[in-house]
Specification:
Blueprint: H1 2-23, E1 36-41, E2 49-53, E3 56-60, E4 68-70, H2 72-75, E5 85-87, E6 93-97, E7 100-104, E8 112-113, E9 122-127, E10 135-145, E11 151-160, E12 168-170, E13 179-186, E14 189-199, E15 207-213, E16 221-225, E17 231-239, E18 247-253, E19 259-264, E20 272-277, E21 283-286, E22 292-297, E23 301-306, E24 313-316, E25 322-326, E26 329-333, E27 342-345, E28 353-356, H3 372-379, H4 390-396, H5 434-449
Length: about 450
């Protein structure tokens, strides 16, 4: 059974990589243009910030003054993935991947998969601020089809209370006709669990599903979310910090189709549209009191509203690929065209202070010799013809002047000239088995849609 699941996952990732690489006129490394799309903060270390990028992670220990790189191979990614990350109070990194929940206990120098999550496709994870040591992860993947062609999925929630050493299933079994998408807990109600999914993924007109639990996942109430043509799935954008009944949902669409932001004030029983974007919304943030809201996309820029009337107004023309509100202001992901890859605003989104240009990154994270990150990101693996991946990665970023190998506490090897290497993070698509061939088309569509399920934690 394990090999069957592994084959399905491998084909999905391989086909997704191939499709995206083929469709991009500016393919880079794993087939994607370099960009940032998620920001994550540590609950007990105000200086620690993770920036998710399409070629791994950027990590800062000084609140964005300097940044170091962790490549995809170190994290354990096997293709085109944008994992959700969580940092526990003890400083452990947890990430949802197509191969399980990846865990780092030394802040990025080594990663490994939590044993009882390996070989499952994890698509989301979350925690409540008041019990941040408890992390809930969501696994959902293809599970077969019947003779009539009906497709079924295996979806389950898992939780850890021991820093990712173990994950155990909790809550009710989900309807196998639903492909899971997102999960969220509510800051003000410890028993509330929200889940979204979709029936008929890959079909011309899929059906959105919103699930609400008032008893910590033991039972769920289901509400349909009508998707308009072009919308593929509903994703939870956020939950009001003080009102567990108010939940925000955004619809995922292709880059050239409009998407909507919905809100429910009755725990998901009904929804109303409060914002329509020109393309898929990539950024969403709420103030700590829930009274202010920001949304953004690559075409719409940044918009702001009070949650008393949801009268949105434009704030910035920056192309937004993620948003996150923190104690020191509104953080955003964007691009060099907008003036920053990561930025912070102290005036509620009118202007942004640049926190990172890609070419200012120092290089691979400094880690001890023998650690996964040192081996993969400094040296380029263990093969005899290895190439240090940072110089070619810098070239792909358009940073040709100077090659800083990054701070290496244990003394890394000197950089060499780029030799056609892909940054140590590429993926070769496996050949499809007969079983995998039957599900390849569906899985490719599903995996592509999951690339950007959430902009940040």
């Amino acid at each position: 059974m394990t090999s069957f699941k592994a084959a399905k996952r491998a084909v999905a990732i391989g086909l997704t990589s191939a499709l995206l690489a083929f469709s991009s006129s500016e393919a880079r490394a794993n087939g994607r243009f370099p960009e940032s799309n998620g920001i994550f903060f540590a609950p007990s270390d105000p200086n620690l910030v993770l920036l998710r990028v399409t070629f791994g992670l950027m990590l800062s220990h000084d609140r964005g003054a300097t940044w170091d790189w962790v490549c995809e191979r170190s994290i354990g990614l096997a293709g085109i993935e944008d994992p959700m990350f969580n940092i526990t109070p003890a400083g452990t990194f947890l990430g949802s991947t197509f191969s399980g929940v990846t865990v780092s206990r030394d802040q990025g120098c080594s990663f490994d998969f939590s044993p009882n999550t390996k070989d499952y496709v994890f698509i989301d994870l979350t925690s409540r601020p008041s019990e941040a040591q408890r992390v809930v992860a969501f696994a959902s993947s293809y599970d077969g089809q019947d003779e009539a062609g009906a497709i079924f999925f295996n979806s389950a929630l898992y939780e850890t209370t021991d820093e990712g050493v173990t994950f155990t299933k909790f809550g009710a079994t989900f309807d196998p006709t639903i492909l899971g998408e997102t999960v969220d807990l509510t800051p003000s109600d410890p028993d509330r669990v929200y889940v979204t999914g979709v029936r008929g993924p890959g079909e011309t007109q899929p059906s959105g599903v919103f699930l609400t639990s008032h008893d910590r996942g033991k039972t769920y109430e289901e509400t349909p979310i009508a998707l308009v043509p072009g919308e593929k799935a509903p994703y939870i954008a956020g939950v009001d910090p003080t009102n567990a009944d108010r939940v925000y949902v955004r619809t995922y669409t292709a880059v050239d189709r409009p998407s909507r932001l919905l809100v429910s004030d009755d725990a998901g029983k009904t929804f109303r549209v409060i914002f329509t974007a020109q393309t898929s919304l990539a950024g969403f943030a709420l103030s700590p009191d829930g009274k202010k809201i920001w949304v953004g996309s690559m075409l719409d820029g940044l918009h702001y509203a009070s949650t008393t009337d949801f009268a949105f107004e434009p704030r910035s023309r920056a192309e937004i690929s993620c948003l996150a509100y923190a104690s020191d202001g509104l953080w955003a992901c964007s691009n060099e065209k907008s003036g920053f890859v990561a930025g912070r605003s102290n005036d509620e989104g009118h202007t942004f202070e640049t926190k990172l240009h890609f070419c200012d990154a120092r290089g691979p994270l400094g880690c001890a010799v023998g650690s996964v990150t040192h081996t993969e990101c400094h040296l380029g693996g263990t093969s005899s013809n290895r190439v240090p991946p940072w110089p070619p990665q810098r070239a792909l970023l358009g940073c040709n002047a100077g090659l800083d190998a990054g701070p290496d506490a244990a003394g890394g090897e000197p950089p060499v000239d780029p030799g056609g290497d892909d940054g140590g993070c590429s993926f070769a698509a496996p050949s499809a088995s007969p079983v995998a061939a039957a599900i390849a088309s569906l899985f490719a569509i599903v995996a592509i849609a999951r690339r950007r399920r959430r902009a940040s934690s």
